[in-house]
């Protein structure tokens, strides 16, 4: 079973181009499932039934949140589809198990003045400050995921058109818009920041757009640390993540009249239902404004 999981992980990494973050979670989830199977005396994936998967999920419900259980079930369904296509199993027992119903949390976002404060925080007199300024501007201007951001190469940019080519979930390509301020910040970084960082590693970073202090490609975790640093410098800001800026991008577009379908395309959502959650955020904002401003609210 371990060998089959290894092949499946290779398939996800190479053919599906799944992010390292997702790969780590899936591997951990599947290792946990294998441990359960071995304790139950099941040494082959083909011997597993719907009831076995259901029992596994039932035990998880005592110690895990619904969101975590849903992800583990998704990992099992995906694994079994791979095994079925490869001819190792005849059917997918995880497909028959219902996923727990999840409560959809409204996404956190920053108001325009807080976003401006964050964008103005980096010290652009240093190479790292120029990088951080460009990085924050790109996150807010394009709404890209952090995994898409760190995977950007210089060759993916078309600054004359104000666009970038990103590779999203499932290796899907899409063009994102950058806006004039992000383009300006990138031009300054490429001219005065990146060359200094690139020389640190003797050019070992190749085409990677955003580099760390050692001259190699920036990681997802590093972007989170960069954000944490600027949150401390900005008065009144709570903890935010790179995904907060993605939510902010979508919410500000919707607040200013953008069409939901257009936002779906810009975010790279395969389903409109994933984008519709922002309508709730916008509605809550309107209700707050109304309550505060209307004399008879």
Attribute tags:
hpI Integrase, Chain A; 297 residues; DNA polymerase, domain 1; 2 domains; 3 strands; mainly alpha; three-stranded antiparallel sheet
Mean pLDDT: 85
Total helical segments: 13
What sequence of helices (H) and strands (E) makes up the elements? HHHHHHHEEEHHHHHH
CATH architecture of the largest domain: Orthogonal Bundle
Radius of gyration over C-alpha positions, nearest whole angstrom: 22 Å
**Pairing-aware structural class of the strands and helices?**
mainly alpha
**First-to-last CA distance:** 62 Å
Strand order of the largest sheet: 1-2-3
What is the CATH superfamily label of the largest domain? Answer: Intergrase catalytic core
**Strand runs, count:** 3
CATH fold title of the largest domain? hpI Integrase, Chain A
Please mark out the parts with pLDDT under 50 across 5 or more consecutive residues, or reply none.
none
* Helicity range: 55-70%
The top level CATH class name of the largest domain: Mainly Alpha
**What shape does the CA trace take?**
globular
Largest sheet: 3 strands, antiparallel
């Amino acid at each position: 079973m371990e060998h089959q999981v290894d092949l499946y992980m290779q398939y996800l990494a190479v053919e599906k181009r799944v992010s390292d973050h997702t790969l780590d979670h899936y591997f951990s989830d599947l290792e946990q499932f294998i441990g359960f199977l071995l304790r139950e005396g099941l040494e082959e994936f083909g011997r597993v039934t719907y009831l076995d998967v259901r029992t596994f999920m039932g035990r998880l419900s005592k110690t895990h949140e619904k969101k975590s259980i849903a992800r583990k079930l998704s990992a099992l369904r995906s694994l079994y589809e791979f095994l079925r296509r490869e001819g190792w199993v005849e059917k997918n027992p995880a497909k028959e198990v219902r996923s727990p119903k999840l409560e959809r949390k409204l996404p956190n976002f920053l108001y325009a003045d807080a976003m401006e404060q964050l964008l103005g925080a980096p010290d652009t007199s240093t190479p790292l400050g120029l990088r951080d300024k460009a990085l924050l501007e790109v996150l807010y201007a394009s709404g890209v995921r952090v995994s898409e951001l760190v995977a950007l190469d210089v060759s993916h940019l078309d600054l004359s058109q104000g666009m970038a080519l990103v590779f999203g979930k499932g290796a899907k390509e899409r063009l994102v818009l950058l806006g004039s301020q992000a383009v300006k910040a990138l031009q300054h970084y490429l001219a005065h920041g990146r060359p200094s960082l690139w020389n640190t590693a003797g050019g070992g970073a190749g085409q990677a757009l955003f580099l760390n202090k050692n001259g190699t490609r920036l990681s997802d975790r590093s972007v989170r640390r960069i954000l944490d640093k600027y949150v401390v410098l900005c008065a009144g800001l709570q903890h935010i993540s790179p995904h907060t800026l993605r939510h902010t991008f979508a919410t500000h577009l919707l607040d200013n009249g953008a069409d939901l379908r257009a936002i779906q395309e810009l975010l790279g959502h395969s389903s409109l239902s994933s984008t519709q959650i922002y309508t709730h955020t916008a509605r809550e904002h309107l209700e707050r404004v109304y309550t505060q401003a209307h004399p008879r609210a």
